[in-house]
Amino acid sequence: DQDYVRLYKILLIGNSSVGKSSILFVLLTKFSLKGRIKSIKLSPTIGVDFKTIHFESTSLQIWDTAGQERFKNITTSYYKGAHGIILVYDITDRQSFKDIQTWLAEVDKYGSENVVKLLVGNKSDLENERKVKLEEGETLGNALDIRFLETSAKGDTNVSGTFHILLNEIKEKMRNLPEASKRQSKASQLPTLKKERLLKTQSVADDKLQQLFIYGAFQLVISFLTLILTMFDGFNSICFDNI
Ligand code: GDP
């Protein structure tokens, strides 16, 4: 019962250029080096993609906005069924820190009420360019009652720690949820899983269609050659008949 849900959907959100993709990339590289990536899947939808990583005996399906935040184009389906949300700002960009409030409003509007949130101030390696103090991040985290960490995707500081903390908090929350909510959380993953299965079926169907096409083309060539040979035969017989 402890790990009732084995697949967790995690979102990375925040302004453009704060380092969301870099954080995910560091995590992927680290895990691929250790050979712990179970599978990396790209969803066919342009704009949003997710990657599945095997992490601490569970699977994390991590979604990245892939730049869509620039166009304010993040849809409700992105938030649907998320177990954890990492809100990222850039410590060298004050606006990205201010905009955390806007992102939080989105999360409250579209995310599930049981979603675990985590606040991350990225680019901690750029101390000289710092515009947001460490204490400011801590104060905001305390005010919102969510954990706060500073990370550096460039220096690989606290990246896996962030996911480790988030996963522990999610597991803790799941343990304390009533059964009905757990079932609901599990059910919320179904559309994604179904979609994956659908894609698989689709690609099998595509392969069959391709085989059929090759077979058809082959048949056409054979028929054409037979026709030529028959005509050639007829032509010969006409010639010989004339002789
Ligand atoms: P996203 O738009 O939020 O996904 O941001 P990206 O991951 O594309 O990063 C934007 C820029 O910030 C890129 O040039 C990254 O190389 C850089 N960047 C990301 N994380 C860090 C970091 O921790 N430290 C430094 N110095 N640069 C970073």
Mean pLDDT: 77
Structural class: alpha/beta
Strand content: 15-25%
| Number of extended strands | 6
Q: Could you give a short account of the major beta sheet? A: 6 strands, mixed
Spatial strand sequence of the major β-sheet: 2-3-1-4-5-6
Shape: elongated
Subunit organisation of the chains? single chain
Order of helices and strands: EHEEHEHHEHEHHH
Distance between the first and last residues' Cα: 94 Å
- The amount of helix comes to 40-55%
Count of alpha/pi helices: 8
Radius of gyration over C-alpha positions, nearest whole angstrom: 27 Å
Poorly predicted tracts of residues: 37-46, 189-205
List of distinct ligands in this structure: guanosine-5'-diphosphate
How would you sum up this structure, described in words?
By secondary structure, the protein is α/β, with parallel strands linked by helices. The chain is built from eight helices and six strands. It has helices at 20-33, 76-79, 94-98, 100-110, 134-144, 159-176, 179-187, 190-242, and strands spanning 7-13, 49-55, 58-64, 84-90, 116-122, 147-150. The chain has a six-stranded mixed beta sheet with strand order 2-3-1-4-5-6, sandwiched between helices. Helix 5 (134-144) links the parallel strand 5 (116-122) and strand 6. The longest helix is centred in the last third of the chain and has 53 residues, at 190-242. It is elongated, with a radius of gyration of 27 Å. It starts with 6 loop residues before the first strand and ends with a helix. Mean pLDDT is 77; it is low at 37-46 and 189-205. The site of guanosine-5'-diphosphate (GDP) has 14 residues, from helix 1.
